[in-house]
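Below is a filled-in request sheet from our internal design queue. Each sheet records the structural input a requester submitted and the sequence that came back. We keep these sheets so that new team members can see what a complete request looks like end to end.

REQUESTER: design group, bay 2
PRIORITY: normal
MODE: inverse folding
CHAIN LENGTH: 188
BACKBONE (tokenized):
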């Protein structure tokens, strides 16, 4: 009878451990997919902003064609954003993009006719909307990364999750926080 109780306890412990491993694995897979989805949302919004920039540049160029350096900086930042691979590269590109956008809008402030242009005002509105979506996507991504990293680092998960192929993910933090401390001013 004692042997039956010992075997029953061992079987129960194995079943409990199996259920724990199964639920932990599934929750880690879910969190991993959520982080991938959130990163995809960020890249979609960065691409949307990059697609808006040529239109904004053309609108400003019509009034300030002599500001070649500003336009080159935006073009370079746009290319850097589109070619960014992962959160680290994207955060560096994001800082450069914010600085370039501030320069464009600083140039635009000197031209009242441009400020009154319906096309330019519409582009500004779309850019503001896109910037808001980028911030929201970034918060969602970083929240998912936080949840995933916490699950990976907590005990007893830390003992076996790396063996299952799960690793901590990188937050999307802008390298130059001063560049985004104030968003580009697009009001005229």
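RETURNED SEQUENCE:
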């Amino acid at each position: 009878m004692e042997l039956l109780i010992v075997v029953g306890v061992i079987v129960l412990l194995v079943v409990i451990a199996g259920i724990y491993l199964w639920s932990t694995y599934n929750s880690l897979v879910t969190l991993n997919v959520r982080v991938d989805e959130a990163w995809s949302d960020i890249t979609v919004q960065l691409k949307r902003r990059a697609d808006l920039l040529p239109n904004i540049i053309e609108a400003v160029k019509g009034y300030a064609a002599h500001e070649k350096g500003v336009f080159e900086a935006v073009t370079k930042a746009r290319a850097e954003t589109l070619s960014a691979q992962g959160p680290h590269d994207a955060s560096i590109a994001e800082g450069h993009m914010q600085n370039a956008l501030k320069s464009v809008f600083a140039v635009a402030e000197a031209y009242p006719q441009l400020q009154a242009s319906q096309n330019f005002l519409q582009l500004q509105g779309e850019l503001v909307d896109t910037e808001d979506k980028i911030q929201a996507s970034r918060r969602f991504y970083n929240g998912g990364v936080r949840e995933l990293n916490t699950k990976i680092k907590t005990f007893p998960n830390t003992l076996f999750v790396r063996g299952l192929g799960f690793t901590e993910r990188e937050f999307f933090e802008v390298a130059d926080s001063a560049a985004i401390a104030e968003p580009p001013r697009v009001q005229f």
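SHEET NOTES:
- DSSP finds six helices and no strands in the chain.
- Residues 21 and 120 are 56 Å apart (CA to CA).
FILED BY: M.R.
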